[in-house]
Write a structure and sequence with these properties.
Elements lengths: L9 E5 L3 H12 L3 E6 L5 H11 L4 E4 L11 E4 L8 H8 L4 E3 H6 L6 E6 L4 H14 L4 E5 L5 H4 L8 E5 L2 H4 L9 E4 L13 H9 L10 E5 L5 H6 L4 E7 L6 E4 L2 E4 L4 E4 L8 H13 L1 H4 L3 H10 L8 E6 L2 E5 L6 H9 L5 E6 L11 H7 E7 L3 H8 L4 E4 L3 H11 L5 E4 L12 H13 L2
Parallel strand pairs: 1-2, 1-4, 2-3, 4-5, 6-8, 6-9, 7-8, 9-10, 10-11, 11-12, 16-20, 17-18, 17-20, 18-19
Antiparallel strand pairs: 12-13, 13-14, 15-16
Bound molecules: adenosine-5'-diphosphate.
């Protein structure tokens, strides 16, 4: 643990979601003078309770971010707050110190190893698998970051023998200062969150910040098949390790249904993998590279972890089979690319449930898979009209209001051998609190059929 540099420091915490709350608790425990600024007035009760629990004189404002935020030594930003937010722009113009909650947590810990994962898709799956691998090799391991566990919430438990595996979003990477991971990966770069960046190249550059502060012995992992791989590869200053599909297409590659890891001669048959789709083969290959220094000669442990890994909830999760009709929950699919990946993971006869709060990306990349595999689309939520407009020439589309309507309609039209797949390609916030709630509700409805 480093010296406490936060004692009596004035710190403004912007945004009081899960990571904001954790940051406030962490800073308060270190004796910082905390100021909370939250746009949402409904958070007032949460803030009052937090102040009461912490028994400290924490100042706060709700309903907007005023200039009071700038009266601080440090501003800690929640991931949901855009760098285009006026107060953030003003803070930057005033050369204020701005950190993400991630930077805050990592400024405090000195573990044996930090492994960091980013990418448009596959972050949580890869982060979880890396965590499982590190644990299986006998390390005291922590999982944190964008996966839903604030770094500051585990910071006090991490010691010098621990490994910390962190999922990092591009939002958190916008404000990287001293964060240094020993192994980092950018899994892929595809259009998402583009409203926050000038263009996709800018988005790729922000993702590459995960390699910032690495030195020549550190590991940087990239995807040989990614369209923006050169931007990513050029940003790695350490050992550049890559994964890909096709013979010899990376330091680890998948060819003819087998994974080959070149430098330690490890071969793994993909038939032993329990999680569906080529995208998961990519996640596995990236995980192996990230853990390269742990694996060394003992690959038996690695075999066991990979062949027993069943993935995580809400990611192409099999829910139930009724009369030969199988239901899958891919609620985590919040963009077009991850829905495309889900469609590619199946052979066919899919009834696709999609919709929700839209991103700006077009739905057209789905057309080839839709034409060959999708029987019907049932669209719901805010996105349903654009989904209909962009896809109705290729597949029959029904519009419904609620998830319950969608599931019941799909079940009525399905026949033996069909797959009913919830893979929305949209965010959940128009009808649900988050993708987890959307997935849980889908499962509840399916289980009540
Ligand atoms: P993230 O944390 O980046 O959102 P997850 O591991 O939670 O990623 O997976 C979310 C969805 O993204 C999955 O259900 C799947 O459809 C898709 N996906 C997962 N891994 C990849 C990958 N390597 N490439 C492309 N899409 C992927």
């Amino acid at each position: 643990m480093k010296n406490n540099i936060f004692k009596n420091k004035k710190v403004s915490v912007l945004g009081l979601g899960k990571s904001g709350i954790s940051a406030v608790k962490f800073l308060a425990s270190l004796g910082a003078k905390v100021f909370i600024s939250e746009k949402n007035t409904t958070s007032l009760d949460t803030i009052k309770k937090l102040c009461l629990d912490l028994k400290q004189d924490i100042k706060y404002e709700t309903g907007g971010h005023s200039k009071k935020v700038l009266d601080s030594d440090l501003i800690v930003l929640s991931p949901g707050i855009s760098n285009k937010e006026p107060i953030v722009i003003e803070a930057l113009e005033n050369n204020k110190e701005i950190w993400s909650e991630l930077e805050l947590g990592f400024s405090f810990i000195k573990p044996k190893k930090i492994i960091a994962i980013t990418g448009t898709n596959g972050k949580s799956t890869t982060t979880t698998l890396v965590y499982e691998i590190c644990k299986a090799y006998g390390y005291k391991t922590f999982l944190c970051g964008n996966i839903g566990i604030p770094v500051t919430s585990i910071a006090n438990e991490v010691d010098k023998n621990s490994i910390v595996v962190v999922e990092v979003s591009s939002y958190q990477l916008e404000f990287i200062k001293n964060f240094h991971a020993n192994s980092s990966a950018v899994l892929n770069v595809t259009p998402d969150h583009l409203y926050r960046y000038n263009n996709i190249e800018h988005y790729a550059l922000v993702k590459s910040n995960i390699f910032k502060n690495q030195n020549k012995d550190d590991i940087g992992v990239y995807n040989e098949n990614d369209q923006y791989k050169d931007i990513i590869k050029n940003a790695i200053h350490g050992r550049k390790l890559s994964f890909g599909f096709g013979q010899d297409s990376g330091d680890i590659f998948c060819y003819d249904k087998k994974i080959y890891l070149k430098n330690i001669n490890w071969i793994f048959d993909t038939k032993n993998i329990k999680i569906p789709g080529d995208h998961n083969v990519e996640n596995i290959m990236a995980s192996v590279l990230l853990c390269m220094d742990l694996i060394k000669d003992n690959t038996k442990i690695l075999d066991n972890v990979i062949s027993s890994f069943r993935g995580i909830e809400h990611r192409i999760e099999q829910v139930r089979e009724i009369n030969g009709i199988t239901f899958y929950n891919d609620s985590k699919s919040t963009n077009v690319d991850s829905t495309l990946v889900a469609l590619k993971s199946f052979k066919g006869r899919i009834i696709l449930l999609m919709g929700g709060r839209e991103k700006e990306a077009p739905y057209s990349p789905l057309i080839p898979e839709i034409k060959s595999k999708v029987k019907n689309i049932i669209a719901f939520g805010e996105g349903k009209i654009r989904i209909k407009n962009e896809l109705e020439n290729f597949v029959k589309i029904d519009l419904v209001e609620t998830m319950k309507d969608a599931v019941e309609k799909a079940f009525r039209m399905a026949s033996r051998g069909d797959i009913i797949l919830l893979s929305p390609a949209c965010a959940s916030f128009d009808q649900f609190n988050n993708f987890e709630e959307r997935g849980r509700i889908f499962k509840e409805i399916v289980n009540s059929l």
